[in-house]
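Deliverable D2.4 — example input (structure tokens):
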């Protein structure tokens, strides 16, 4: 059922935009990730799945630089970033959209977007136009304070900011959390459009079925170990839901960290 295909993410021959190479990490004396290897290629959507406490959020923290691994390496576009701070990783094109979206709620939608347009990108208005092509729902909200947007519109804004900021790799933590299904559909369509431009994505998602149908590759974590890495077509979805997201994993002792 879980035939491993760990090399599936590197079949194109190009260097991954994001790579975990044997990463071990944790908090104090508690080890959360154990020898984790992940590859995310340009234009690829990788779903990072697993029960609560599996290590998903810890993986994103390691990638973003807010947590340094005790072993292994993290590379962005072929460059070892294991020891460099988060702002330097952002300069290389790595963007984390945390649970809760992380937008500036007191600024307007347009101000949120303009803050993320690099000076080297030319006209800010052109960058905004590109973002609004992908997220047309924001067009009529440009002058509205971001904190007054619906949850779905705030999530769209957070992804649009990453896009105008020329992010090469976007990591999304629970992108669908608390959103209506129709809004989730719209966001997923936009993510697919972004992937077509070459943006790589590492997606943590509570709606497993949606993630499996959306992604190019799956990394399944179980108590900090990679239990599966490969295409979603190799997974039996019903068995996956029962075996990996069922009651057996509700009492995971690492749930505070994953």
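Example output (designed residues):
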């Amino acid at each position: 059922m879980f035939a491993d295909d760990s090399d599936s993410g590197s079949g194109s021959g190009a260097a991954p935009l994001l790579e975990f190479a044997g990463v071990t990490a944790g908090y104090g004396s508690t080890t959360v990730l154990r020898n984790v290897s992940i590859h995310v290629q340009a234009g690829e959507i990788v779903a990072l799945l697993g029960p609560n406490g599996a290590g998903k959020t810890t993986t994103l923290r390691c990638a973003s630089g807010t947590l340094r691994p005790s072993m292994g390496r993290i590379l962005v576009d072929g460059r070892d970033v294991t020891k460099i701070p988060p702002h330097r990783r952002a300069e290389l094109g790595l963007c984390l959209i945390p649970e809760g979206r992380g937008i500036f709620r007191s600024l307007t939608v347009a101000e949120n977007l303009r803050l993320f347009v690099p000076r080297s990108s030319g006209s800010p208005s052109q960058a905004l136009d590109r973002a609004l092509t992908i997220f047309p729902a924001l067009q009529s909200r440009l002058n509205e304070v971001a904190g007054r947007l619906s949850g779905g519109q705030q999530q769209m804004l957070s992804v649009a900011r990453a896009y105008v900021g020329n992010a090469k790799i976007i990591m999304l933590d629970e992108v669908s959390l608390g959103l209506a299904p129709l809004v989730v559909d719209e966001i997923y369509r936009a993510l697919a459009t972004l992937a077509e431009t070459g943006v790589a994505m590492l997606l943590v998602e509570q709606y497993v079925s949606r993630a499996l149908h959306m992604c190019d590759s799956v990394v399944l974590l179980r108590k900090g170990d990679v239990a599966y890495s490969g295409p979603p077509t190799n997974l039996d979805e019903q068995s996956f839901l029962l075996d990996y997201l069922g009651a057996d994993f509700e009492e995971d002792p690492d749930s505070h960290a994953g």
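The radius of gyration is 18 Å.
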